[in-house]
Amino acid sequence: MRDLLNKFLYGSSLSEAANDESRTLSIRPSPEDNNLFLIIPEGAPKEAPPLYTISKRDDKPNFVAYRGPPAPENIIGTATIHFTTTTIDLSIFNQHMVVKNSLSGNWSFETSHMGKFKWKVNQMTGSSYELYDRAERKLAKYGSAGITRPMEKQVSVFVPCDDFFTVTIVLSIMACKELDKINEKVAGKLINGLVGI
């Protein structure tokens, strides 16, 4: 039954070995600061220390990733959003990459040692995203944590990965979703201006 459920939820592109190595991370807003997001293993108690913390900022870089709590000595990554070019500059453990948006709403990036990846909009939900590699294997999924936790998001990772790839997955999708929000606001203002609202 578990295999059937996994196949339905995560697609047939996953091997059983990948399912055995999967893990889910919760992205929770900090109770003290709405611009801080705590990355915690799914099922961990609310008071558990975060694996990572992501800070959302008005100035550049727009996101800063920390290992553990947010302290200058814990910085491991940044994301800088460029609205005019619809791109995001990522720096994870001093490795730089650019996340680019396509007309289809997908986001792609390439790492120097792991190859090309693409966040694709889930066609069934329209709001969740799935990460694929060049061979079209589904590596991760991002979406809601469910109706009982409306403020939380989840990232399910279906393959073994190190700190570098885990932070790349989480930071890239958070920055992509933020740039999507900015684009929607600007488009809404343009449409309202055109129709005279």
Structure at a glance:
The chain is of the alpha+beta class and 197 residues long. The protein has helices at residues 2-10, 16-20, 163-195, and strands at residues 23-29, 36-41, 52-56, 63-67, 75-82, 87-92, 95-101, 107-111, 115-121, 129-133, 138-144, 153-157.
Question: What does the model show?
Answer:
The chain has one domain (2-195): Tubby Protein, Chain A, CATH 3.20.90. Helix content is 24%, strand content 37%. It has a twelve-stranded antiparallel barrel. The protein is built from three helices and twelve strands, in the order ααββββββββββββα. A hairpin with a 2-residue loop joins strand 6 and strand 7. The protein is an alpha+beta fold and 197 residues long. The termini are far apart. The chain has helices at residues 2-10, 16-20, 163-195; strands at 23-29, 36-41, 52-56, 63-67, 75-82, 87-92, 95-101, 107-111, 115-121, 129-133, 138-144, 153-157.
CATH fold annotation: Tubby Protein, Chain A
Total domain units: 1
Largest sheet: 12 strands, antiparallel, barrel
What's the order of the H and E elements? HHEEEEEEEEEEEEH
Strands, total number: 12
Number of helices: 3
Q: Order of strands in the sheet with the most strands? A: 1-2-3-4-5-6-7-8-9-10-11-12
Principal-axes shape call: globular
List its salient traits.
single chain; 197 residues; Tubby Protein, Chain A; twelve-stranded antiparallel β-barrel; 3 helices; disordered N terminus
